[in-house]
Predict the 3D structure of the following.
Amino acid sequence: MDRPPLDPRELLEAFARVRENGGCPGVDSVTVDHFAEGSAAACDLLAEQLRTGTYRAFPLRQIIVEKKSVEKKPGSKEHRTLLVPTVRDRVVQTAVARRLSRSFEEEFLESSFAYRPHRGVDRAIARIRMLRDQGYWHVVDADIHSFFDNVEFIPLEAQLAGRGEPDWLTALVGEWIRCPAWDGTRLRARDKGLPQGSPVSPLLANLFLMPLDMALASRDWKLVRYADDFVVLTRTPAEAARALGLITAELEKLQLELNASKTRITSFDLGLRFLGVFFQKDEIWTPWRDGPREQGRVLGMARGMPAEQLERFRSPRTPTVMETALTGAGVRYIPSGTAHLKGAENEVAYLYLTEQGSVLRKSGDRFLLEHEDKIVLDIPYHKLEQVLVFGHVQVTSQAMVEMMEKGVDISFFSWGGRFHGSLAARKGSNIRDRMLQYELWHDAGRVRETAHAVVANKIANARGVVEWLARRRNQMKELAPVRDQLAELEKSALGNPAADLDTVRGYEGAAARAYFEGWGTLNRSEFVWAGRSMHPPKDEINALLSLSYTLLTQELAGLLEADGLETALGFLHEFDGARPSLALDLVEAFRHPVADRFVLSLLERGEFGREDFGHGEGEAVLLTGGAMRRFFGFYEAWMASKWRTGTVESPTFRELLRREARRFILFLRGQAGLQLYRFAPDEVEGGEPGGCDISSVTT
């Protein structure tokens, strides 16, 4: 069972913060003081609604306020529209924001100063002063056109989903940002924008602008950003012009644009105004410090919502028929939304079947999943490319035939994740490529060279992951011995290209031992790491690693088979019946940078506890049903993740697997050398992959 989203204690602590901040009532006209009179009972009720999925947010109350004098710029509006949640919704949002901020803080860059603990206007001003004194004299003074009003929902939700946050949390955030606004006479639907006045909006604003922060951090330009107001300091006017071009391009990817009338290139000679502070040459003026800071007056406030209209929002939220069916079957469907993004790719859909005793059938042009005589999932063929079946789940022969005809691959696993086999329609024989593969396999010298390249690349990626983690966690000293040992093994492997296969495998084994010994330092979870154990995994961390490796290997095997190759013929991994040795060879490049970092991210966030694991045959430790369904959701989000290399957005991990298969074909044909995925720790900014686009089905 999933853990409760928020408990009454967390909500009461959040209310204390809401009470401290004060503010007006929302559309239900309940004031902070009124809520305080029954706060304990109210928080108990909210916790129960969140646990049962019946919580429902109220509409937002529209309030027009005058801008503070320090906020006004030439050409700016004289007022600001706030959309204020009710007190009870502010309590839940504050609790969620506090929980999210703990993990976000590890990833937000130093250039961001707004809405973060122990940071603020004074720190931002001090940063500008320091950079000015270091010679960063030229400035891009930028303003995003109506930032909070123009944040698109789908890219924001994709960024949040890419972090692998729990389903209940992403669903809540989606509901809050899409809440309708009450203007005093009618409800107004909203199709974009972060509500100013909502406790969770500042955190989401920083998350949404992280790609901009990361792109600028890769250059010798210095960003100082306070929410949507920011400056970029450079050493020369030419660099400032280039920085402005990059800013424009990055904002376009986020479907935002600069306000041309309020964006300019200036210098400290000409003067700069930022956050109400005036900079001129070596001088700084803060006029708002000389007296009481002027507060923005309320120019208009929507009246409270009539009782009869409020009533339908007070009623517990009733799940839709489809949601009820999916929940009953343990199904999670993540719709594709990012196809609307510029340059976004439509990821294929994956269906994970884990509900024991269920049956997948064919019906017309659709697949139906039945459990206990109920249809719990109805999905058209075109939504799927691959079905993964775990444990005791039946698939009818008619459904299997339809999958093969429609090009939908189906793979079978034990409940613990051990791969049994797959069924797939042949998508092309590619007999010439297969013959080239046979020729390579019969050439002992080329087999040795290929295996050598696979191992050397794997060791390099292991070292890269250790270096990345050491910097990210400030553990350079603790991880130095592991890094140095891997570097020596990589050097030995590269310096001995004529080594026989046993020697090559010896390098791999030594590197694996060194790398996994370092996991004792990397592990920050409640679980004890006793070393790598396989077939079966004997502890919780190994269970997560083994399942991740299995999914990666099977996905790559499917891609190779689709290209007509013989997956049983590998080079580092010897021929062993139906074992996908070729996929095991090529997946080595992805084990540490993709699977291991994924598992570490799950452990760091505490996504799984001891109650999420059980025991299988022998000493095997396995995820339980509900936990496995959550795991698949996190895995799909991770595989669809993107990050930035310099100013270039990376492909998803899933696309990198496809590229690996295509590159191996080119290698067989002699059109390119063996190109394996290489993890570049120096080029990964901001920690884990950020925004992602997802189109997947998980059960």
User: Anything to note?
Assistant: Residues 189 and 427 are 46 Å apart (CA to CA). The longest strand covers residues 60-66. Confidence is low (pLDDT under 50) at residues 69-77, 318-348, 683-699. The radius of gyration is 28 Å.
